[in-house]
Amino acid sequence: DTLYLIRSEKEEFYLHLEFQQIYEDYLPARMNEYAARIYNEFHLPVKTVMIFLNTSPSIRNLEELCRYEVGGIVLNEFRYSKIILPELHWKDILDLNLSVLLPLIPLAKIEKGEEEKALEATVAKIKKIKESPHRGELAAILYLICGYRYPKALKQLMGEQLMKDLM
Q1: What is the pTM of this model?
Q2: What is the pLDDT of residue 143?
Q3: CA–CA separation, 31 vs 46, rounded Å?
Q4: Which of 4, 46, 91, 132 could form a disulfide with 15 if both were Cys (CB 3.0 to 4.6 A apart)?
């Protein structure tokens, strides 16, 4: 899980990113509970995004609303967003401008023959991050995930020297 404080001229809120491998029936209720705890601690709105690392019909059909009703009366509603990485094109992740998602690009939808282009664009985007601890963490995660999914490209794109440069 990742929690970011987002500040803009218009609003201030916490962005809660919840990474999930599979769908479980209690997930929306658990996200509602997390949002309530975050709000109680910091007294700012919370926007939750569930990021699924796999796909399935239950994930695809998951409604982005958790509603609690008693006798037809709505007691509580909790809205969240979902991202299904294997169904999201890698270029769309680059466009989101959420640096925390960059290392997950190897898990996104990448057409055959586009692997090198996708990974080069990801590495270039990570290189532009000014904060060195954050840049290094993202590079290390990308290195691990890339090694799992694209071991040949890893050696070519993310050799030792690049890792040293990024760290």
Answers
A1: 0.79
A2: 81
A3: 10
A4: 4
